[in-house]
Amino acid sequence: MSQQTVWIARHGNRIDFVNPEWFNTAERPYDPHLSDDGILQAQKLANHLIGKNITQIFASPFLRTVQTANEVAKVLDLDIKLDWGLCEWLNHEWMPAMPETLSLEELVQSYSRIDLSYHEGTPQYPETWKACMKRTGEVSRRLAQEFRAENILLVGHGASVVGAASGLVGEIAETKVKASLCCLVKIVLQEEQWVMELSGDTSHLDNRETTVRFV
């Protein structure tokens, strides 16, 4: 039986990291888009994933993750399936209410590779770190099982990258994964055992974070 690989990526750099003042006038302040260099990071990620035999792309429905996934989808000629299970950690200290995002219909107007037939429901707000790890871990296990014969890519956020990895390799991911911007985690199924081969690789990027930022 051939090996299955689950790739997990964080979105590229976001506009409010580059220009914090953006937050003050944004229509949806908790759903920032990628910065210009974030788009370049996503393109670097996309080119790095050529030849990896990825057949499915899943992304959080936040704009920055959709934009990152879209760059990969264009290069690999794949659709994007949006899954709320991969969304940001819904931490009330970061966001005073459930963050507003664009609707599926609004997103598909700009990102036509979104698969309208696939949509997973919204998680509960607010949530603890433990609940976020449980949610995202369940998603990675479910998708790995559902697409067992395929290599898949999950595009999420700092917390959901860690959680998705922990869902496959266990709690060790919470200390081993460095979920910096546009990083890659690679987890391979070998003889029914998940093995983490990359724990936050950024070798495909020109400009790399030295400190991981979540918000």
Structure description:
- The protein is 35% helix and 21% strand.
- The protein has 215 residues and is an alpha/beta fold.
- A seven-stranded mixed beta sheet has the order 4-3-2-5-1-6-7, with helices on both faces.
- Helix 5 links the parallel strand 3 and strand 4.
- Helix 3 runs parallel beside helix 4 (63-76) and helix 6 packs across helix 7 (158-169).
- The radius of gyration is 16 Å and the shape is globular.
* CATH topology value: Rossmann fold
Number of domains: 1
Any idea what the CATH architecture is? 3-Layer(aba) Sandwich
Distance between termini? 41 Å
Low-confidence stretches: none
Principal-axes geometry comes out as: globular
Order of helices and strands: EHHHEHEHEHEHHEE
Number of strands: 7
Treating each run of at least 4 consecutive H or I residues as one helix, how many helices?
8
Strand order of the largest sheet: 4-3-2-5-1-6-7
